[in-house]
């Protein structure tokens, strides 16, 4: 897998070096600051940036979430350990019937393609009482056997939503 990533990175760098200045790839991503969301003078710009990121790029970075950086580091460390595990272990947290809405989601081939894409992910949402999950059409989280991953993720969600 690392060979594939190195090949992709090399190709991207090669394309960037060989591109004219006018058609170079802009590899920056939008960044939103949660402090701006809570500031009435900056909230409109926050929403404009967020909307543009979601509709034009598909992702964005968030700063000043209110989540302790030690908790974030622990969540990353536990996620790294999880994704290093064998596929059989990770698949025990895969719930096919949830269509990728919770739990582990393995690499898959896009419709019409034979080759799998290079991503797998773990989808975690807010912990809510059952009646609220049903009211909003959400699913309960599917947690892995690796219990150490759950604590920093839950802590991050609790702190970020309380801002």
Summary, kept brief:
With 163 residues, the chain is mostly helical. The chain is built from 7 helices and 4 strands.
List the helices and strands and how they pair.
Blueprint: H1 2-18, E1 31-33, H2 34-37, H3 43-57, E2 61-63, H4 69-84, H5 87-91, E3 103-105, E4 121-123, H6 130-136, H7 150-161
Parallel strand pairs: 1-2
Antiparallel strand pairs: 3-4
Helix pairs in contact: 4-7
* Mean pLDDT across residues: 81
**Share in β-strands:** 5-15%
Instruction: Please provide the ordered H/E string of secondary-structure elements.
Output: HEHHEHHEEHH
CA-based gyration radius: 19 Å
Structural class by sheet pairing and helices: mainly alpha
**Terminal residue distance:** 39 Å
* Poorly predicted sequence stretches spanning 5 or more consecutive residues: 1-12
Discrete helix count:
7
How many E strands?
4
Helix percentage range: 40-55%
Provide the spatial order of strands within the biggest beta sheet: 1-2
């Amino acid at each position: 897998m690392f060979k594939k990533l190195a090949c992709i990175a090399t190709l991207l760098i090669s394309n960037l070096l060989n591109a004219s200045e006018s058609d170079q790839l802009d590899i920056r991503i939008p960044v939103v600051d949660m402090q701006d969301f809570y500031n009435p003078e900056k909230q409109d710009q926050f929403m404009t940036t967020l909307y543009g990121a979601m509709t034009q790029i598909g992702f964005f970075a968030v700063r000043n979430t209110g989540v302790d950086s030690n908790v974030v580091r622990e969540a990353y460390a536990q996620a790294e350990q999880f994704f290093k595990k064998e596929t059989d272990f990770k698949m025990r947290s895969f719930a096919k019937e949830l269509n990728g809405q919770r739990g582990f989601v393995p690499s898959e081939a896009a419709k019409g393609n034979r080759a799998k894409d290079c991503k797998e992910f773990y989808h975690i949402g807010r912990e809510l009482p059952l009646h609220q999950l049903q009211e909003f059409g959400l699913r309960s989280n599917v947690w892995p056997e690796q219990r150490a991953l759950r604590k920093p993720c839950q802590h991050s969600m609790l702190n970020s939503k309380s801002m």
